[in-house]
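User: Here's a structure from my thesis project, written as structure tokens. My advisor, Dr. K., wants to see whether a designed sequence matches the one we expressed. Can you design one independently, without my sequence as a hint?
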């Protein structure tokens, strides 16, 4: 039974489109708008003031509200199914969609909820302060636990992929990540791999397949080494150690320099894996330098 209208906190057990719960579920603005669209039309349909929506109507809504519609727009409507039951049926040449309710397993699926134990582990291991600005409850700042890589991009609800952020930086990160949604499919492919070299390499391959260059800001995202690694060095390893041909482009935009990378040729991964190949290269380089120093001393 409904306990509120579409602008209230609950409608047929469904969360409000502007709630923190929906923001936690969908970091992607298009996906949130897709949920809002289904949510509002469910309410109107129940009150017999509008029919159930079609895919064509969603595309028109996306163009009007978001100012664009692209190859991912149809997928965003289907992304709602990660946490909610959405039924469809064919009507003429189009599909009709109905938001039925929550998925029975949504609370436990793909990190829709972060358990109290995992929250405690995150705060214990990573501190009770924002990973971006360092502020915390002592300064009157409210913290939220955030997925470093969003679930929609393949990120998991694990200690390694969670960190505390203040509300301001969490919302700022969401806005920044939304600007990267055109690369979502490539990022999703890359983050599943084991090592940063493989993840960055897969990103280069995926972007080449769609005819796009890799913006430099994507490297730390797929490298997953924000606190301990250097994604630019991993890219250098691909070029120098593993002999990948990657072209670098730089251009000025206002006061900023935009850097992009284009994969020209990828090489097979070494049998021992990229990590061991890079480590071997570094060991040999250090031995050569030590030998050169000994020669200079003599």
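Assistant: Designed independently from the structure alone:
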């Amino acid at each position: 039974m409904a306990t509120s209208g579409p602008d209230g906190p609950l409608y047929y057990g469904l969360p409000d489109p502007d709630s923190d719960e929906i923001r936690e579920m969908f970091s992607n603005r298009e996906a949130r708008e897709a949920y809002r669209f289904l949510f509002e039309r469910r309410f109107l349909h129940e009150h017999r003031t509008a029919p159930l929506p079609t895919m064509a109507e969603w595309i028109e809504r996306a163009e009007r509200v978001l100012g664009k519609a692209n190859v991912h727009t149809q997928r965003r409507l289907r992304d709602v199914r990660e946490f909610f039951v959405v039924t469809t049926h064919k009507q003429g040449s189009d599909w009709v969609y109905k938001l039925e309710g929550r998925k029975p397993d949504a609370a436990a699926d793909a990190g829709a909820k972060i358990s109290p134990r995992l929250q405690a582990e995150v705060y214990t291991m990573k501190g009770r302060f924002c990973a971006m600005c360092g502020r915390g409850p002592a300064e009157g700042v409210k913290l939220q636990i955030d997925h470093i890589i969003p679930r929609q991009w393949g990120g998991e609800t694990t200690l390694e992929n969670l960190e505390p952020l203040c509300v301001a930086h969490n919302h700022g990160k969401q806005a920044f990540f939304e600007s990267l949604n055109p690369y979502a499919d490539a990022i999703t492919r890359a983050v599943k791999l084991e090592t940063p070299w493989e993840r960055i390499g897969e990103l280069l391959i995926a972007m080449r397949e769609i005819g796009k260059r890799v913006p430099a800001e994507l490297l730390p995202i797929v490298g997953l080494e924000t606190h301990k690694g250097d994604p630019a060095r991993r890219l250098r390893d691909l070029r120098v150690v593993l002999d990948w041909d990657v072209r670098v482009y730089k251009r000025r935009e206002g006061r900023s320099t935009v850097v992009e990378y284009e994969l020209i040729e990828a090489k097979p991964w070494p049998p021992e894996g990229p990590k061991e190949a890079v480590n071997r290269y570094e060991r040999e380089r250090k031995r050569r330098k030590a030998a050169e120093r000994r020669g200079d001393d003599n």
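When you compare it with your expressed construct, this may help: The first strand starts at residue 10 and ends at 11.
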